[in-house]
Amino acid sequence: MTNHLYLPVIVLLIGGAGFAIGPIVLAWIWAKKFSPQKSGPSKNAIYECGLESTGDAWIKFKTGYYIYAIIFLVFDVEAVFLLPFAVAFGGFTAAESIDMLVFLLLLVGGLVWACQKNVLSWT
Amino acid sequence: MDEQLKSELGRQGVVATSLQELYNWGRKCSVWPLNFGLACCAIEMIAATMARYDLARFGAEVFRPSPRQADLMIVAGTVTKKMAPQVVRLYNQMAEPKYVISMGACAISGGPFKQGYNVLKGIDRYIPVDVYIPGCPPRPEALIDAFLLLQKMIDEQRLTGPNRPRHLNADLPSEFIVPEFGAHDLVPPQNPEVWKVPLVNISIAGKNESGRD
Amino acid sequence: MSVLTEAPVDLTPSQSDDRTDSQLLEVSMGPQHPSTHGVFRMDVALDGERVVKLKPVFGYLHRNHEKIAETESYLGCMPYTDRLDYICSITNNWAYALAVEKLAGIQVPERAEYLRVITGELTRLQNHAGLVGFLMQDMGASGTPLMYAFREREKILDLFEALTGARMMCNYMRFGGCRVDAPAGWLQQAQKVIDAFPRFLDEFERLLVSNEILMARTQGVGVVSREQAVNAGISGPMARASGVNYDLRKVDKYGIYDRFSFRVPLGENGDVYDRYMLRVLEMRESVEILKQAMRDVPSGPIMDPNTKTRGFRPKAGEAYGRIEGPKGELGFYLISDGSSNPYRFRVRPPSLINLTLLEDMCLGQNVADIVIILGSVDIVLGEVDR
Amino acid sequence: MNLEEIKSEIEANVPGCSLEIIPNGSPSGQHSLLVDPDHAFAVAGFLRDAANLRLDYCSNVTGVDWPAKEVSTKVKTKKVVDGVEQEVDEVLKTQSGGYLEAVYHLFSVEQRQGPVVLRMRTEDRADRVHLPSLTPVWRSADYQEREIFDLFGIIFDGHPDLRRLLMWEGFEDHPMRRDYVDPDDYEYEPTAHDEVLKRAKEHLSAEGGL
User: ipTM of the assembly?
Assistant: First the structure.
């Protein structure tokens, strides 16, 4: 095993996974051996401030929430794309910066449409 | 692994513990109480968590609002009959291992409001209580003393063997019946499994008034 | 090309809450809830985040004070009044003692009146300090402002413990005076605490009063108009925040409050910010009163010699006595039939009656604002449910 | 404005209402005004809106239970006893009570007026326990009337939302009445004495002895 190119990455991966999975497996084995499962009807009931919860939580929400979430998602992903753009900002030729500009303007256009339709304003 | 060897090793910086001690040490130093104040004792409980009495020194300042993440229920205040089903349901919904501190005279036995028609005469009629703190309201130091007592109890719990604690014992119940609201009183008025009335030698014939033999 | 001329489909969410597209979420901010300062339950119907219906449910701490009082003697009821509004026990005692003195026509010596004003205003200070801390905690500043507020409260509780023997349940007043005189050095100690209090208030005001988040979250939230407040029987700082100039210390002039010069702060638009500012300003006024009271405390007896508290049997009759408690107008309505037990012992609970407008204040607000509105009303469940 | 003037003013403005001043024995001097339930709503509206009264702040609403009881009062009567005129005190048996009562303490915020005490009485304590609700006049009476309905059983007609305030929904009797019997929740006490001993014996004998 000459020093394989990706050796440190693999070791790091296994170490990380071990740290993550390890305690969970340990706890699972511990629970299996020592503390038995004691679930019952009252324990699994929905917790609502000590009362028996009535009504259903799966209801139709106002559409405004859904649109708000989608717009947030779009700009969240856009921020991820902007990261490499910001890192390599120095050595850009004209063509590349125009491409980036088109990408940005498309999304800003979307934002302008949303504001103009006052989707984001909340009564 | 006798004590003398252990303390010898301890002096040289080598800690020798058994799995059980490690398990109990870990659990006793991070008892998370349920955010559950009822009456005046709750104010003293809040004062105990504030800067002056500082419950954080004992690892218990994290007050979790939801029973799923709490492992200690401090019944701080008067448990009324309208509140009793909620207290028992919250106790059932807490994850094992769970403990109960009955704080204040009202939670122990109804306290000054014993003759009230809407007052439950003590929460140990429905759920098992681990530590009782007398007082009305007990001082914050008394609550900290209760925590120390609870930590000592957790420390002495055995992992295996016949008298292992309830959460390690499959056939001991972890849920208790939730009382219903009846026409005049809670139905059932107490939980016979939990509330065992010691023999009260009241002679019905009423020979000796004071109730003693 | 008829397609083009067709009206564009309107995709925007309709601002008016038409029921068709969204259902209501029934949730109960129930007896065990971090925001309710005790066991108080609100059944809330939510349209998304906005409150559409709010029904409070009481009774989870109904400890039957009034039924038990009918089997207790007049003196025996005094410790029960500590547990009514268990944050300010001395003002409860004062209200009950005042009602019994009105019922039986008892006089109170000078020094006792001064001690009553001093301990009463100290109670108001620690109640308002605690409230400001809890209000910040409801707003999300979890812990830190409450630590500062409780640091001040602990100093005052030490004074009470030195004077009456108990931190919270002082049982300090008697019909015709006070139970025990101030021990040696207590007045100097109290003077030190009073002198240090404005520093805490300045610190609080510098940190919080002009804090943008606080102003953004509380201004215009939970508005109560002046007429609404009076008609709904709202009293105390909550009524004065809506501009109702009705402070029993100035109206009834009970005790010796007419000897002190202090101002009564009033709010304009009755929202949560005004109520918060009311408490901060009232703390300053209380410090003024305390300074004047500490300056001229006379010496002398603290109990009216010819009233016996043991076998106390007032003549048959009734009396309604009230004081300006930290939460509002705290009244006791006593009916006596000549025996040693009160025939009817009724407490006028300011916390319960200040909650009358809770639903009106919360309709249309966000869920997070309910928590602040309830916090600004300043309820204590021992007094709400009695 | 003492009570007589208020009484005359009400009688002038509210036709046909029968008012009665109930004297108050204690030195507090807070005499009260008994109103008959039919005109109570009109009287309340008048008291709130009258120019010189303006009692717009109903501070306290209390329920009181007066069970029927014999009141024997000694009365000095002149009686002819075997031909001689003599002072003889005779025991007079009068029935008092036998009704539920709602007491309203009214104040005026504008004119800083003292308490005006308004009383309403029901016919009897069993089934005719209806009284008009004054919540539409003073919103502050809302929860307090619900509490009186819960603990005393007075049914307030016209109340927007008359439900039990403090006890749970299924609770049946009215606990603050003088003749309420406590539920038999057994109080274990190691050294039971007098009151608790009596209850413990009743409980144990009900349970078939020990």
Answer: 0.87
